[in-house]
Write a structure and sequence with these properties.
mainly beta; Immunoglobulin-like; elongated; 6 strands; single chain; 4-stranded antiparallel sheet; two-stranded antiparallel sheet
């Protein structure tokens, strides 16, 4: 994940995520209140490397982001952790 910086605090309820391609042909982005969940956002399968997510909670909670990447026929993921804005 190139932005926002992993471990950072979101500035608002709308955040644009950007990541590098590597050799992946598709992606799937989850945002959840606990690891591996997608109660906040679920992108579905996408081919773009930039996604804007709105309606993220602004209560200071930990936000767990999972980025799935499809390489060949296999899906792999990396987890990132952020802190929600507290407004």
């Amino acid at each position: 994940m190139t932005s926002p910086t992993p471990g950072s605090t979101f500035g608002s309820s709308t955040v644009t995520f950007n990541w590098t391609a590597g050799s992946a042909s598709a992606y799937w982005l989850y945002l959840g209140s606990s690891l591996g969940t997608y109660d906040i956002y679920n992108s579905g399968s996408i081919t773009v490397r930039l996604k804007t997510v709105s309606s993220i909670p602004t209560d200071g909670r930990t936000i767990y982001v999972r980025l799935w990447s499809r390489v060949g026929t296999s899906w792999k993921f990396i987890d990132y952790t952020y802190t929600a804005s507290s407004s």
